Known about the structure:
mainly alpha; 2 domains; 6 helices
Amino acid sequence: MATAQxxxxxxxxxxxxxxxxEAMAKLVARKQYADxxxxxxxxxxxDMAKRDRREVYSRLVTxxxxxxxxxxxxxxxxxxxxxxxxxxxxxxxMLLESGTLQNHANAILADAYTDARKRATDETGLKVNxxxxxxxxxxDDLLADD
Length: 146
């Protein structure tokens, strides 16, 4: 690849990530692999994978926190809690269509539950030992509408 084209792609990456992605997609579609901005493409893909994993973790924590609050504070159940539970389930289902992210969710469930338990303690004022120490759910249970 010409040095000028690589510099142009580097500039594009720094100025307009979406336009850079479109340029990368065009190069791949044309099978011009040598012309790809390999350094930034590798960085971008790694960051994207990390972002997806963080999102799964965050949504699991939020969902389980609200389920704990729902279960252990029935007098405070609100439509807002129900809505959050429903929305987190919807978003998680979409994310977990990826087998890799499904495996990730299964692998981090216990850690996410530990954080959900702490967050539920902070949000409810209940003592942490009020909530079960071990996770009550499997990922499939969390995704079920009930």
